[in-house]
Here is the input.
Amino acid sequence: MSFRFDFSLADLEKETASLNENAGNNTQTTIPQNSASKIIPSGELFITDLDILPQNLMVERVNFSIKNVELYKRHLSDVKFQIAQDDELEERETDQPSCSSAKILELAAENDVVQGVYEGGLKTWECSIDLVEYLSTIVKDINLTDKKVLELGCGSSLPSIYLLSTEESLHVDFQDYNEQILKLVTIPNILINTILRPQNVDVFYDDITELDVSDENKCLDQLKRSRFFKGDWGDLLDVMKYHDNQEKYDIILSSETIYNADSIPRLYNVVKNVLKRPNGVAYIAAKNIYFGVGGGVLPFRHIVERDNLFKISVVYTASAHVKREILKLTFLDSL
Here is the structure.
């Protein structure tokens, strides 16, 4: 099933009424699985070289409403160019048409998400920006030294990369449904904001510049400090293999990942099992309603509150056509 997240005010009012009715009946809105696709199983991506990257990266400055945050990301046109080159090379080598990265690019042109195939990682979502801006207001009050952070459904990974940019000793792991997104977007963005970070703002023209992928050893050392997970959340715990509480995460971040009512329980199951007790904290940034796909803040809150494991509170609200919020989860036994 494919869909976009943009919709009219009339559609929004209908969806709100539907959610309220469902809330009263203690039921969840669901969507059918895409029968043409299979869920991608969870796995770990190991980085041993930089062959996944071109010699140069086109980089753009990310615009925030606050002035104290400076982050960069790989330009989408650069991603498209690499996909076209890699696709052409693969076809010449195998004499078979490639359908991995190129197929994702084709799908992304028409849909925000294609369930079970592409989960929106090429786009930098509004709630990801919200989460960065919120974190920038509290980062001075958080002791990040030698702490562990996980970003679920990371895509461009701006929230976790922002924290990494403020504390070098931080250990950050990344998870995205699509392996191609980790290679084409997440990993370049990590390097762009660490080892390859622009030192001279004058090199930007219309907020865009080009960076050489230099010093491969330093880049690899940076990437080897992180674990990269791919695939569905359903079997992610089996891949992570965290049994000791001290191995788990002090902070979990996630943006725009609770849009689908079917996948919310799987996401929540990961959060509650890999967040360190008793003082771990999770921040979930999302829109109140995702029209047509049953997810949003309300269904997620129902699952969390029913489990009676976390205190859940709203720490950030953005008033827009569709309201956006950041939810903070803390263990009840830490209070």
